[in-house]
C-alpha cells in the first residue's frame, strides 16, 4: 500500500481503522491538490452576493491546494458580440461572413483574436469550470453569453460528430452557480415562473453537455436581495461546505427527464 | 354598416356575398394599415438567411401599409453588457452597484443612457416586435440578449406585481423568428437536442410573456446552411405568406404544457 510507504511511523502507532480513514483523507487531498479550477464570473459589483460566492470558492479551492483562475468579465471589459474582429487576418469568405465557419477555420489556423485564445487556454487547462452569475431573464447575463458564443468555437469545444457525450471538453466538469431575483417558490413547478430546471435546459444541456462537460447539479442562491443577512450568510456557508467535497460528486444525468419530469 | 356608407355604388352592383367578402378584405387592410412593427435583428451579414428573412418582413409589412422600424444590432454596434454607463448622472448607491435597482430608478427619473431610451421608444410605439436571429447555443446571440437585458428595465417592461398577464407590454405582440444550425430531426422529442420547444421556455415565457407580450408561435427556419437554394427560397416564401395574415393569428397558450408535453 502506498500509504505504508509514505507513513510507516504513523501506521505502527495507529490501529487499522484509523490508518484507513487517514489514508482516505490523505488520498482525497492528493487527488484534489493540483486540480485546476476556472471561475467565469459576471457581476459588476465586487461586494455583491455573486462576488462573495466567487471569493468563497477561491478560498476553499486554494485551501485544497487547487489552482484557481478567474475570468472577471466586467473587469476585463469582455466583448460580448461575435464579430469579424474575432478573426485576425484574412477571412475565408469576406463576401459572405459566416461567424461559425470563419471562427472554426481561424481556430485551426491559430488566428483567432488574442482575447479568445487566452480564454480557450484557461478552459483547456481547467478540470472544473464554474459559471458564477446573477440570472438575467431566465439565462446568463449577455456578457457571459458572449463569452460562451465566442470561446466555445467549433474545433475547440465540439466538432461533428464530437458532441454531447463525445464533446471535446468531455474530461472536464462544469457547474452553474447563480443567484436569482425570484424566490424558490416562484421557481417551483406550480410557481409563476415554473420549475427552475426548465430554464436550465438550454444552459446545461445545450451548452455544457453539448461540449461534453460532465454537469454537476447547479448551486442556486435564491433571491439574496430579498432575504436577511443570516440567510445570505447561510448561502455562502452552504456553497463553501459543498465545495469541500465537490470532487467526489457525480454529475447529473443530463437528459430530458432530469429537467421536465 | 360602415361599408355601405363608404362604397354605396359597389354595393348596388354586387350580390350580398361578394359585398361581404370585399368588406372583410377592406376591414383587414384598414386594421393592418398604420400598425407599427419593430424588428430587432442580429446578424453580421446582410446577405445571410436572417438578413433575407428580415427583408421579407419589411416588404410584406410595407405593402400592408404598416410602418417598420429596425434595430440592426451589429450595425449599431449595440453594447451588450449591462454596466454603470447605462445610468447617466448620479447613482442611488455608488458604494454597492445593483444594476436592476439603479436602472429602475434611472428609468423613473428619465436618466437612462440615450441608447436605451431610444430602444424603449421603439418598443413603446410598436404593436408587434419581431426578434430575427440565428440561434446561438440554444438561445439568443449575446448582442440580442444584451438588448433585452438593457432595454426591458423594471418600470418600463414590467413591475411588481405587473408581470406575466399583467406585464407592462401586454398590449403588444412578440414573435421569435430564428434560424438553427441543427436540423428539425435533431430538435425533435427523440432527437439529440430535444424538442425545440424546450429551449423556447426561457425566451418566450421568461422574457416575452413575463413582460406581458402576447406570444405568437415562433417562425423556425431549420439549418438553412445545410439545405439547397430551393429549400431556402421556400423558407422565405413561407415566412412571407405567414406574415400576410399575421395580424389575425391567436397567441400561443404560454404555459408549461405548450412547452413540455
From TrEMBL, chains A, B:
GO terms for molecular function: dihydronicotinamide riboside quinone reductase activity; metal ion binding; NAD(P)H dehydrogenase (quinone) activity. Its cofactor is Zn(2+); FAD. It is found in: Cytoplasm. Its main location: cytoplasm. SUPFAM superfamilies: Flavoproteins. Residues 35-242 form the Flavodoxin-like fold domain. It catalyses: 1-(beta-D-ribofuranosyl)-1,4-dihydronicotinamide + a quinone + H(+) = beta-nicotinamide D-riboside + a quinol. Its EC number is 1.10.5.1. GO terms for cellular component: cytosol. It holds the Pfam family Flavodoxin_2. InterPro entries: Flavodoxin_fold (IPR003680), Flavoprotein-like_sf (IPR029039), NAD(P)H_dehydrogenase_qn (IPR051545). The enzyme apparently serves as a quinone reductase in connection with conjugation reactions of hydroquinones involved in detoxification pathways as well as in biosynthetic processes such as the vitamin K-dependent gamma-carboxylation of glutamate residues in prothrombin synthesis. Belongs to the NAD(P)H dehydrogenase (quinone) family. Homodimer. This is Ribosyldihydronicotinamide dehydrogenase [quinone]. It comes from Leptobrachium leishanense (Leishan spiny toad). The gene is NQO2.
